[in-house]
Design a protein that fits this description.
By secondary structure, the chain is mainly beta. The protein has two helices and 27 strands. It starts with a helix and ends with a strand.
Length: 365
């Protein structure tokens, strides 16, 4: 019984790790088999037609083994073999492919090819960056204003994390490679942040669609790059989540100083109609086309502060609780600025933790 429990625990761990940046420098070995053609859009990954432009062009759809399935959907791989094995159709390669399905009976390293053939052959394969699509494509399934189920795609590597809304709520991935959000109230549009395994980061406005595909309106992006081989972690290079947690506890740790000279505000988010459309850091300038919509500003404070003071000319607002918003908020609804300054640059000063962050903003209708 003890052995069974340990075996089950190991099995659970093996399907939850997913790929990492360092995996793009590895070569995996296993067996290659065939499961027939014509199954491109019916796999567990639910990578349905229409496919994102360019991303999977000229690539064969394949099924990955169960131990490596979690987080693998949409990854591009290159397969090679030397014809060693048994059957009528040896795998030689190179074969350029993308992962669209799970092979339940396959072992770690095995790949099942979506083409007609016969046999079981020794193979090697490696992860390679896909060709990124010119636009961030979103596939929708069974969605409405109270329930979003979507699949961002068209990146160099699989999507690893998705955050949504002003509070950057982290979403969970479903087994069929979608991300689910239950907003708790009607939601037609929202800001999302998408992070991939290779570090591509996209912030975009998504508009809910019951089904089918549309394209996100990207406000900022970082294309990322194929990483160098992983180095041993250095003590000072802490994960971002751990670093933010340390900053939040800065003023409450035993022996910590009561004040901190680092900037308490890392950036200011600009909202139009309660949707984040632009971000700007200290000393930066930005121009925003608003379409005449409601304007509000959110200050991002990664460490604990007693209050945040916004000042534009003679207008001043003090916020004591997050989210820190000018001119204010009711829950997650950000109040509109009643006297916006259009077509000329103005300065927004945000003071917190003994420091002031200043950004220059031009609003266009």
């Amino acid at each position: 019984m003890k052995f069974l429990i340990l075996a089950l625990t190991a099995a659970l761990v093996s399907v939850t790790l997913g790929f990492s940046e360092s995996d793009y420098k590895k070569t995996f070995k296993g067996e290659g088999t065939y499961y027939g053609s014509g199954n491109d859009f019916t796999g567990n990954c639910a990578i349905k037609s229409p496919l994102p432009p360019k991303t999977f062009d000229g690539r064969l759809s394949v099924a990955i083994n169960s131990p490596q399935y979690e987080g693998a959907c949409g990854a591009c791989i290159q397969i090679t073999g030397n014809g060693e094995g048994s059957g009528a159709n040896p795998i030689i390669g190179p074969i350029n492919a993308y992962i669209s399905d799970r092979c339940p009976e396959c072992k770690f390293g095995d790949v099942d090819l979506g083409m007609n053939g016969d046999g079981r052959w020794k193979i090697e394969w490696k992860l390679v960056p896909c060709t990124p699509s010119p636009k961030t494509q979103i596939l929708w399934e069974g969605s409405n204003e109270y329930y979003w189920k979507f699949q961002p795609r068209g990146f160099k590597s699989p999507v690893e994390k998705v955050y949504i809304g002003p509070q950057k709520k982290k979403l969970e991935r479903t087994q069929d490679n979608h991300w689910v959000w239950r907003p708790g109230k009607k939601a037609k549009k929202e800001m999302v942040k998408i992070v991939t395994v290779l570090g591509e980061t996209v912030e975009a406005i998504m508009e809910m669609k019951p089904s089918g595909t549309n394209y996100a309106s990207v406000t900022s992006s970082d294309n990322g790059k194929t990483p160098e081989p992983a180095e041993p972690p250095k003590e000072e290079n802490k994960p971002k989540e751990e670093e933010e947690e340390e900053l939040l506890d800065l003023d409450t740790r035993k022996g910590a100083p009561s004040t901190d000279t680092r900037k308490a505000i890392t950036k200011v988010n600009i909202y139009v109609n309660n949707v984040s459309v632009q971000s700007v850091s200290d000393g930066g300038s930005v121009e925003v086309a608003t379409g005449g919509g409601d304007i509000s500003f959110e200050a991002i404070a990664p460490r604990k502060v007693d209050q945040v003071v916004f000042k534009i000319g003679n207008e001043q607002v003090t916020e004591k609780f997050a989210p820190y918003v000018f001119p204010g908020n009711r829950g997650n609804n950000y109040l509109p600025w009643k006297k916006p300054i259009y077509n000329s640059q103005f300065t927004l000063n945000v003071s917190a933790g003994g420091t002031t962050t200043s950004v220059k903003i031009t609003l266009r209708k």
